[in-house]
Amino acid sequence: xxxxxxxxxxxxxxxxxxxTRSWGFPKETPELAGANPDFAILATGQAPRMKLPQWxxxxxxxxxxQVRGGFYHARAPHWPDEEAQGQVLYPYRMGIEPLAVxxxxxxxxxxxxxxxxxxxxxxxxxxxxxxxxxxxxxxxxLALAKIxxxxxxxxxxxxxxxxxxxxxxxxxxKTPKQPPSGQGFSSDPKKRKAVEKHAEDMALEHYTTAGWHxxxxxxxxxxxxxxxxxxxxxxxxxxxxxxxxxxLTINEVxxxxxxxxxxxxxxxxxxxxxxxxxxxxxxxxxxxHHEDWEPAEEDLRPRKYEYRLPQQKM
Length: 314
Prior knowledge:
single chain; five-stranded mixed β-sheet; 25% strand; alpha+beta
């Protein structure tokens, strides 16, 4: 349970965290150190400094997210205030997959949260947003968000059935609108290029060391690897944030699903970028290597559509 304050910086970080599928804390508390959470609930819209009875009569906006990969210690600045200061302010991080946003949720017995869960949000707010761990049934909140998942039985949530949403509800007159997101949510094209090239360099080294002959292509896929008559196509993604999810084009999905292709996915997270030099220099990062990759439908969610306009006479 995580409370996010209404201040400009905190709301900006909330928007950024949702878009880049990452969340972090300034320190590792004993409570968080022993946790392996399934979900993260980020709550905003209600000031926490009130007595519990008053709190249970209030409402808040809840962002329901599934935690992916557990906690890790980050080395790369990621959030806007981290990049502005050139240092890691939230090193204890986790990957989050936003599932749904529900507004005006009752925090008392008429709502989907247990009293312990609701109070944990309040206590998080009085402790500068440090997460509080609660053993709570998520099914009422999944039902309220209209997500067709039987958590007790399957322990999974189909992403393609979760409501698609962006961080737009977070925006306000106090919060500057950000440009479209991508891996790492970087509005700086030089930084984005450095991250992408570094991830590709790491993938190239991985396959070359394994005895593959590697060609850089870029399109329709990043790397073409051949060895002893075998051919693999590699999609490479890089981010300064958590390894939660990546953006794919329709062509990338169709290419990976084509039975005539053998496709790997190579993802590098937590990439550090030194912006004090030109060109920017990227380093570090944690790789994930998915061989014989074919994206399943339940792991895909559309973020953009092409709309064909009705024909009109000119």
